[in-house]
Amino acid sequence: MDVEVAEELTHTEGQAPAEDRLAELYERHAPAAGRLAFLLTGDRTLAEDLVQDAFVRVVGRFAHLRVPDAFDAYLRRTIVNLHTSQLRRRGTERTYLERQRHGSDPGEVMPDVGERAELWQAVLELPPRQRAAVVLRFYEDLSEHQTAEALRCSTAAAKSLVARAMETLRKRVRRDQP
């Protein structure tokens, strides 16, 4: 892109309205951007949406571009970034749906809120270091080594804290059951 395109968007005196300049800029860059987006997506509709989203983002940030003459390069980079984000989002959605499909058993019993409250009360009654070890290890899902680092103790000590806490919790849960 040459300097005249940058001037089209920034200079308004004696020029056509901003909408006309934007339309001309879109007409100039959309075909190449559309080809790129189509090659990335393989779907014409998705490609068109990708180009429009990228164009809106780049034009919205035009005043902040480091090199306004490189509009086409920024547009290409934005198309690739949006496509990558779209793929990532789609992968996350698929993973979630897959988990939902496999994880939801119609015969599955809903958790007992009362039991959960009792278990939480038992956790709160643990000594502070044991409670911290259990929370770090199972709630925060830290490894034994990471738990030890967080507690500023050896890995063996962290494992011992977790083991003692779990034993105490097992005894309390068994005692409370009929």
Provide structural commentary:
This protein has 178 residues and is mostly helical. It folds into two domains: 3-103, Orthogonal Bundle (Rna Polymerase Sigma Factor, Chain: A); 113-165, Winged helix-like DNA-binding domain superfamily/Winged helix DNA-binding domain (Arc Repressor Mutant, subunit A), CATH 1.10.10.10. The protein has helices spanning 3-10, 18-41, 44-60, 71-103, 113-124, 128-139, 144-151, 155-176. α2 (18-41) packs across α3 (44-60) and α3 crosses α4. The relative contact order is 0.07.
Q: H/E series, N to C? A: HHHHHHHH
Domain module tally:
2
What's the number of helices? 8
State the distance separating the first and last CA atoms: 78 Å
Mean pLDDT: 81
Low-confidence stretches: none
Biggest pleated sheet: none
What CATH architecture of the largest domain would you give? Orthogonal Bundle
Q: Please compute the radius of gyration using only Cα atoms.
A: 29 Å
**Share of helical residues:** over 70%
Give the total of beta strands: 0
- Gross morphology is elongated
Class from secondary-structure proportions: mainly alpha
How much strand content do the residues show?
Answer: under 5%
CATH topology of the largest domain: Rna Polymerase Sigma Factor, Chain: A
- Report the CATH C-level class of the largest domain: Mainly Alpha
